[in-house]
Automatic annotation (TrEMBL):
Residues 5-68 form the Flavodoxin domain. This is Flavodoxin. InterPro entries: Flavodoxin_dom, Flavoprotein-like_sf.
Length: 155
């Protein structure tokens, strides 16, 4: 099985830490949206799409990459993210990305990996940020566990 993780991690490297751990379990390269082509995406059996969450949205480069893909049948995909605050029922940003991936022809795994990350956006920066030290060792171990469950579901 060929796997890759596409990761947009721009501020503190929170999401990249998670992607590296998931990629280690999957034996997958971690690339940025700018480093991957549609042909590479089409050739992979399993692709993770993830970024930090900014004001309840995924990184625009990641979303634009997915939107730019023509609709066709593709392999499996999964979503992962880090954010300063938890996802709210009013704005399901992980579901929005999963739906976009499904609309492009991916079989999207129903389980999402999401953990807190160090956040210095907007007013949080004025007080030194929130969630310093996150993702923690426990968060990264949970990311590895998630990757093992994902592999088991891929069969």
């Amino acid at each position: 099985m060929s796997a890759m993780l596409i990761c947009a991690s721009t501020h503190h490297g929170n999401t990249r830490k998670v992607a590296d751990r998931i990629g280690g379990v999957l034996g997958a390269a971690v690339v940025t949206p700018a480093e991957v082509t549609a042909e590479q995406i089409d050739a992979a059996d399993l692709i993770g799409f993830g970024s930090g969450v900014y004001w309840m949205y995924f990184d625009p480069a990641l979303v634009e990459l997915v939107r730019s893909l023509p609709v066709r049948q593709r392999g499996a995909a999964f979503v992962y993210a880090t954010s300063g605050l938890p996802e709210t029922p009013l704005r399901r940003y992980t579901r929005s990305l999963a739906d976009l991936l499904g609309g492009r022809g991916f079989r999207v795994d129903p389980e999402v990996y999401h953990c807190r990350g160090w956040d210095t956006m907007g007013p949080f920066g004025l007080v030194g940020g929130m969630n310093r030290g996150r993702p923690s060792d426990a968060d990264l171990a949970a990311a590895e566990d998630y990757a093992r469950r994902l592999l088991a579901r891929q069969g």
